Amino acid sequence: MDILLSGASVAGPALAYWLNRSGHSTTIVERAPALRDGGYSVDFRGDVHLNVLRKMGIFQEIQRRQTHMGAMWNVNEAGKKLSALPADLFAGDVEILRGDLAEILYDLTRDHTEYIFDDSIAALDEDADGVTVTFERGPSRRFDLVVGADGLHSKVRELAFGPERQFLSYLGLYCAIFTTENYLGLDYSGQAYGTPGRMVALYSARQNTEAKAMFWFGSPELTYDRRDTRRQQDLLEQAMAGVGWEAPRLLRDSRRAGDFYFDAIAQVRMDRWSHGRVVLLGDAAWCPSPLSGMGTGLAIVGAYVLAGELAATGDHRTAFAGYEAAMRDYVLACQKMGEGVSKFMVPENKFMLWFMNQNYKLMPYLPWKGLMARSARKTAAAIRLKDYEPQRNELSRPAGPAPRPRPSGRAS
């Protein structure tokens, strides 16, 4: 089949890899003009995640480029270290910057997948034989299937299922992240400072050559243009006004950052992930929120299952049903990991802030200190994956389908 995937971050390229191995033709359209660099750290944990990465042949490269992050220290306004959160709580078995992972997946697929950057899907017109896709910039084209792997604010989901307000569940927090100078000299570590309802953190990245700044704050839902970066920076400054430690400098740095990201922390909840010849994958279908620590692993596993069901059945209706049956309980378990975390991560009042800091201080001495990490690994491994025979046979082949010509000026 000729399959269009929307989104060139993680889920889309991961699915394209498996589809290529099964003999399908794949095209990925991405609104951004190039691969998105930067972003926060993402991790994989447990045998299920790691085995899929090994099947894809990228586990060693991810290991080579992993963050090697150590502890995240809670500090007071003067920068004095108060307590440490061990890396095992938030870094999984292997952690990598999202931008680095996207680059690995792009390199894995670019010879066999047509990439169209700086464009987006504007309309979908489905009939019995396929889908006519209207693009915002390029000419319309026909595809057998369309996959929405375009994140929390999925355009494909909106076109095929309806407005996102039907499916998004806001968790009470907003987050901003960007790359800045490692001016604190952090050595594979991070520091975080919190006040009631707000937190600012800085952690080293890329072998300590740079740092990632993160802001979190509680708020009622805000109304703003998601493409208006200046307005988002204004909202961030308003929310973080009066916060000490390094917040004033980092807020100034945010104005100069080329990779500034700002969004609500939310989950996606849907009764079904497919409609006719359109199917959703990754955050577009089930975003568990960054608080769960499961989003990227879910995307990788979901891509393996969706492509496997298509390879095993050859019929998209049967494959989509099998994909949903295989993933539904796993997704719900991973989403539970993100529920309620906001109250502990960014406490709403002084007492809860004090209480959490005391717990962090005592954690190394408590008998259940590893319980949270073990619980996360157990959840990440709570699915039994099929060994999809067509995929396994294809993976043994030395080469995939030959690259196809790409429209001039549109593909990378």
From TrEMBL:
Residues 387-412 are annotated as: Disordered. It holds the Pfam family FAD_binding_3. InterPro entries: FAD-bd, FAD_aromatic-hydroxylase. GO terms for molecular function: monooxygenase activity. Residues 2-313 form the FAD-binding domain. The keyword Metal-binding does not apply. It comes from the Bacteria. Keywords: Monooxygenase, Oxidoreductase. This is FAD-dependent monooxygenase. It comes from Nonomuraea guangzhouensis.
